[in-house]
């Protein structure tokens, strides 16, 4: 659905495609009134689109009410002189769904790198988003793609523990180490659900065993930078998405990625801030002994695994991929060393979830910014029970960003609430 902005040129109004080649200075009819755009641009309120001006560019953000669509972004750029160009940028990251109501969101300029979007009438886990317009990630993608780029990132309260990437050759015991860790700390760790283009097998459930997807869809998302790593195996694609890792963190758990060295190399080159651990056998002789003790593979398969293991060990020990190398000579000792690396002492509990569920921000609110704090004033729609309440978003400790979450938000109320916003009453 087309965004609800309208462009006025002289006495006529033109919707849809825009021609800047003639006519007077245009007027964009949008929600928020930015100032300072060159050449006499006049922005006025209408619909669910906002305009934010950064330098010579105006970012129009908005869309219709169709729940299957996403919030659109357009850029109006005064490149030189009086010439104004409209650009449809490449939009990366997980994109928010359209907002509810005729005035669905507000936009707040944080700095020249990003815009804060607050969705009205949304639950806390969906109300705060960031549109990155010139962050390091955006600049890198702009250089790679050769086009104008913007990127969405969902805001999340509090911090998340760094994900853990564990690699090692087949038979080294990394799966056993991970199982021991999960058993000792059942509420602290979680696995990301991988994507695959192969068909589900009997008893496999979508979203539980894998995210089963079409090849064209997965290839498109890989191109859009939504995957940390991927590989083609027997003609099918397998991969770990950024969103799959973030979902684990949203649940208050620390994500573990059990992947091969090539996958670890891809993750290391991505935007994910993780701890990389390589599990090494005490010797190739010991590794061969363990592989043969399984009794599940042919001689040819064992020899192939040994050749692959030799190459992986050389990469794991000599490359800059891994932060730590663990030698699994004695399983219990290696497990204790793994816990020490992760700062675990047996009394650790899971981190709180990023945000409460099930409550909504009202539609009737106003927003202001003071230094690194955004103040949201909420008003009751009922005159007889009208009360003004203030929600504070502290943005001073933001971390991360596109293509994943922007974490570190501190959200709290200055006033007490009587209108169903109790989820925000206490500072995080």
Task: Please give a structural write-up.
- It is elongated and about 70 Å long.
- A hairpin with a 2-residue loop joins strand 5 and strand 6.
- Helix 6 runs antiparallel to helix 7.
- The two termini are 37 Å apart.
- It is of the alpha/beta class and 428 residues long.
- Strands 9, 10, 11, 12, 13, 23, 24, 25, 26 and 27 form a ten-stranded mixed sheet that branches. Strands 15-20-14-21-22 form a five-stranded parallel sheet, with helices on both faces.
- It has eight helices and 27 strands.
- Helices cover 21% and strands 32% of the residues.
- It has a domain of 178 residues: Rossmann fold (3-Layer(aba) Sandwich).
Summarize, please.
By secondary structure, this protein is an alpha/beta fold. The chain has helices at residues 136-145, 174-184, 215-223, 242-250, 261-269, 284-294, 299-318, 331-341, and strands spanning 7-9, 12-14, 27-29, 42-44, 50-54, 57-62, 72-80, 83-87, 90-92, 105-111, 114-119, 128-132, 149-157, 164-167, 189-191, 195-196, 211-212, 227-233, 236-241, 254-258, 275-280, 324-327, 365-370, 373-379, 388-394, 399-400, 406-413.
Mind summarizing the main beta sheet? 10 strands, mixed
Please report which band the strand proportion falls in: under 5%, 5-15%, 15-25%, 25-35%, 35-45% or over 45%: 25-35%
- How many strands appear in the DSSP assignment? 27
Total DSSP helices = 8
* Average pLDDT reading: 79
Amino-to-carboxy terminus distance: 37 Å
Helix-and-strand structural type: alpha/beta
CATH architecture call of the domain at 164-341: 3-Layer(aba) Sandwich
């Amino acid at each position: 659905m087309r965004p609800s902005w309208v462009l006025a040129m002289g006495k006529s109004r033109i919707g849809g495609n825009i021609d800047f080649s003639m006519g007077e200075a245009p007027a964009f009819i949008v929600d928020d009134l930015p100032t300072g755009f060159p050449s006499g641009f006049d922005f006025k309120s209408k619909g669910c689109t906002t305009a934010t001006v950064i330098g010579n560019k105006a970012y129009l953000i908005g869309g219709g009410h169709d729940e299957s669509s996403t919030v659109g972004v357009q850029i109006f750029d005064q490149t030189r002189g009086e010439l104004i160009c409209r650009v449809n940028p490449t939009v990366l990251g997980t994109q928010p769904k359209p907002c509810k109501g005729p005035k669905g969101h507000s936009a707040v300029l944080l700095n020249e790198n990003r815009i804060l979007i607050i969705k009205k009438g949304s639950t806390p886990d969906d109300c705060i988003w960031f549109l990155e317009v010139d962050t390091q990630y955006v600049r890198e993608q702009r250089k790679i793609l050769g086009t104008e780029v913007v990127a969405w990132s969902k805001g999340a309260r509090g911090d998340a523990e760094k994900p853990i990437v564990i690699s090692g050759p087949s038979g080294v015991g990394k799966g056993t180490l991970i199982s021991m860790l999960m058993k000792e700390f059942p509420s602290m760790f979680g696995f990301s659900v991988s994507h695959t283009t192969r068909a589900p097998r009997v008893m496999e459930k979508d979203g539980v065993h894998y995210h089963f997807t079409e090849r064209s869809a997965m290839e498109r998302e890989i191109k859009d930078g939504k995957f940390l790593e991927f590989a083609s195996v027997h003609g099918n694609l397998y991969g770990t998405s950024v969103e799959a890792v973030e979902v684990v963190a949203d649940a208050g758990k620390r994500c573990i990625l059990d992947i091969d060295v090539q996958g670890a190399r891809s993750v290391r080159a991505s935007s994910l801030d993780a701890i990389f651990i390589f599990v090494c056998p005490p010797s190739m002789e010991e590794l061969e002994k363990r592989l043969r003790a399984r009794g599940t593979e042919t001689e040819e398969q064992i020899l192939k695994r040994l050749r692959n293991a030799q190459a992986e060990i050389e990469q794991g020990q000599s490359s800059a991929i891994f932060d730590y190398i663990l030698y699994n000579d004695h399983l219990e000792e290696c497990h204790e060393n793994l816990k020490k690396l992760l700062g675990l002492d047996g009394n650790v509990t899971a981190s709180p979830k990023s945000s409460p569920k099930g409550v909504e921000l009202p539609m009737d609110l106003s927003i202001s910014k003071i230094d690194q704090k955004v103040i949201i004033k909420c008003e009751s729609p009922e005159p007889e029970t009208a009360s003004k309440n203030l929600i504070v978003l502290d943005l001073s400790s933001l971390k991360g960003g596109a293509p994943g979450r922007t974490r570190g938000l501190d959200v709290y109320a200055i006033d007490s609430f009587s209108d169903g916003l109790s989820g925000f009453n206490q500072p995080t």
